[in-house]
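> @MW can you paste both from yesterday?
MW: sure, first one:
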Amino acid sequence: MSTGLYGILTQQAIKGNIECMLYYLPVSPYRPAIDPQRRQYQNPEDILAKIGLTSGMTFIDVGCGGGFFAMPAARIVGNTGKVIGFDVNIEGLEALKELAAKEGLYHVDVAAGSAEETVLCEKCADIIFFGLVVVHLQEPVKALVNAGKMLKTGGRAVVFDWKKKLTRQGPPMEQRLSEKQVTGFIEAAGMKPISVGETGPYHYVITAEVLKCS
């Protein structure tokens, strides 16, 4: 996240009934939901299918931006499911809410907040998705701990990110994390990685679950 700051007051008045919390949130540019160029190397439907998203699930999109993953997720889970997108960027959340309403996807909710400070609900989510966001978190372990609190029993946290190697697409090396670094964060947060795999030439996907109490 970038370093600019602005204050957010608790309210439900920002266009799409966005629930805001009282603290300072960093400002970051958001990525739009509709991006044909990005789709050439990141196909959200394929990625969501790979992580096991199906009809009726509750999907939380951490750092959702304008909804590149949240919108396809909403179509997949359908009206019997739920999608919650949250981000520090109000403009992106407004864009997501507006786009969802245009498609009649009224099971999409949004909330403003940082992953390190936000627990939207207790044991409510089937999948919590961190799409290209972990490297930008100030405290990734704390964010993953919060994710663990929101996961249902048997739910999964998923990290989708750039491989830490030179590729034709993607950010510079200093803005990438290796699979080993991310699994270290996951384990420090009290979760267990259950799969580490590739999705195309540029990205990896790590799936984790909360450790069961013995």
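MW: second:
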Amino acid sequence: MRPTSRAAAAVMSCFLSCAAIGQSAALQSPQTFDSIADPSARSQALFVEAGKVIMGPRCQNCHPNGDRPTQADDMHLHLPMVVRGPENMGATALRCMSCHQGANFEPVGVPGNPKWHLAPLSMAWQGKSLGQICAQIKDTQRNGGRTLVQLQEHMGHDDLVGWAWNPGGRRIPAAGTQEQFGKLIEAWVATGAACPAS
């Protein structure tokens, strides 16, 4: 291959891979699952589709199974080292809001939201199957006492959850949109909120 051809190939390769940065997967609409006659099977299929968001790093990073959050698309331990703290907002000397302000800070890529904090340990998702997370989400003893309707509102409209679709920096947004995700959760609730087996 001639040097100019190699250079052109490298530029094209970079263009194609760089174009993929920041693009998230699509979510199917609830209507896609209307052909599933059994309501329980349809409900499970809807939750599996919503699982494209739930199992992604935008959600998983803030639902760690230990005292330390993870970060980035590869979900490495948070740097600098921080801990959950007694109120899921960091330790006294290094609260989440010390760095995570009211909005994303693009010059250095620090994500932000006025309500930035970790999910409580009772809602840890990392290391769990989608079926286990589904059961956990429905359990009022672990989900902060939320009803299914309140969960639907939280997932479909809460602006901290919504950050997952506008994460800033080089982070890949959650699949689809928050509106699409909310409609999947709404349809899942309407069909009985059945959980997938795994």
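> thanks! Residues 26-190 form one domain.
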